[in-house]
Design brief:
This protein is of the alpha/beta class. The protein has 13 helices and 16 strands. An eight-stranded parallel β-barrel has the order 4-5-8-9-10-11-12-13. The chain has a three-stranded antiparallel beta sheet with strand order 1-2-3. A hairpin with a 5-residue loop joins β1 and β2. The structure holds magnesium ion.
Length: about 400
């Protein structure tokens, strides 16, 4: 079997998604995903450029082809390049599963659990509204729930500019003082209303300094969070020592990490409890599996990133891997079976199933997903950006 064709498919049924289809000379094919929100055009170009190296290769050599695509460029690594490699690698694993007539999780060690625990996103503009939203998630069966108050940036979002042109975001303006004042009050209210049993977590979106993050983690200790997410910008791994020393609130980070080298120092010092990588942004299942093996002796569990900009194929790759690994924690969950994703389902088929708080990879060979290229062609790419955050005096935010 040899790789005959690599097709890069960029489509916008609801938002932009980037898929790769790798076709072998015997007609077998694999579908992968490399959606990188706001940078889809760059990833598409990188994947297209790498594609030529794959033609004529044995598609079952997933490790060697990973090393070829990773090392060929010399300018290796980085989010764009690793998402392109993620799309190629997940497509190759899909193809390998189809060749073996097995779901991918079987090739990764088989089932370590019956279902993959998930968490959903509750929100509202007051503690009362957030409590109602958490209850609605509990009623649907969620056991772990993220609680955020207000728009992106929470109560720290002091104002927002409107979009200057279609597709271009206006800035929002963040201040830490109101945010730090409101978050402990929110969780005090949630515990009072909802009791101590429900698992709650919170995402800081990297908006604090080390001392502010340490203070917040300490204030939240009485409310027993499942984890505090993205408390700091992850580039400053030393800062995690400050937060760690101050509190026993569990920490999660890693959704913008792209390789094992980003993770290893945090693992060695056990500075976090959950790692938020996912296959499609770290060069695929091949690298994500290695990262989770490195995390195992540090007793760090997976909490794979799964916002709406990780599409159903990337989600399936995350579920197959987290069904097989031992050190699984939780999966962030967007339900593509819910209303609003009809166009996406028309082009990708049936998303992975979700019941009573747990998600399940398909039992079909490979990742169990497909793509209808004619459907995808109906929805051309639309220019999009990630949010712009400034301080109230206009300074670009983050440290
Ligand atoms: Mg986050």
């Amino acid at each position: 079997m040899k790789i005959a064709e690599v097709r890069v498919i960029l489509t916008c049924p609801t938002r932009n998604y980037l898929f790769v289809k790798i076709v072998a000379d015997n007609g077998l094919y694999g579908v992968g995903e490399g959606t990188l929100s706001g940078s889809e055009l760059a990833v598409a170009t990188a994947a297209q450029h790498a594609a030529e190296l794959l033609i004529g290769q044995d598609p079952l050599k997933t490790e060697d082809l990973w090393q070829l695509i990773y090392n060929w460029s010399y300018w290796r690594g980085g989010p764009v390049f690793m998402a392109a490699l993620g799309a190629i690698d997940t497509a190759l694993w899909d193809l390998k599963g189809k060749a073996a007539n097995m779901p991918v999780y079987q090739l990764l060690g088989g089932k370590s659990r019956d279902g993959v625990l998930t968490y959903g996103h509750a929100g509202g503009s007051s503690p009362e509204q957030v409590a109602d939203s958490v209850r609605s998630f509990q009623e649907r069966g969620y056991r772990v729930i993220r609680a955020q108050m207000g728009p992106y940036g929470g109560s720290g979002n002091v104002r927002s500019d409107p979009s200057p042109r279609p597709g271009v975001p206006g800035a929002s303006y963040f201040e830490p003082a109101p945010y730090l004042a409101e978050v402990p009050k929110l969780f005090e209210h949630l515990r009072k209303e909802l009791g101590g049993e429900v698992e709650l977590l919170h995402d800081v979106h990297e908006q604090l300094t080390p001392i502010q993050a340490a203070w917040l983690a300490k204030q939240l200790e009485p409310y027993r969070l499942f984890f505090l997410e993205d408390a700091l910008p992850p580039e400053h791994y030393e800062s995690f020592r400050v937060v760690r020393a101050a509190s026993t609130t569990p920490l999660a980070i890693g959704e913008i990490f792209t390789s094992k080298w980003d993770c290893i120092r945090l693992f060695q010092e056990q500075l976090i409890d959950y790692i938020r990588i996912k296959p499609i942004h770290v060069g695929g299942i091949t690298e994500a599996r290695k990262i989770m093996t490195l995390a195992e002796p540090a007793q760090i569990r997976s909490a794979f990133h799964g916002a709406a900009d990780i599409g159903p194929v990337g989600q399936a790759a995350s579920l197959h891997l987290q069904t097989a690994i031992h050190n699984f924690g939780v999966q962030e969950w967007i339900d593509f079976n819910a209303p609003g994703h009809e166009k996406l389902r028309d082009l990708i088929g049936e998303p992975c199933a979700w019941r009573d708080g747990y998600a399940y990879p398909h039992e079909k060979p490979g990742l169990g997903m497909d793509i209808d290229e004619n459907e995808a062609a109906k929805y051309p790419y639309k220019r999009a950006y990630m949010p712009i955050v400034r301080r109230s005096d206009g300074t670009m935010h983050r440290y």
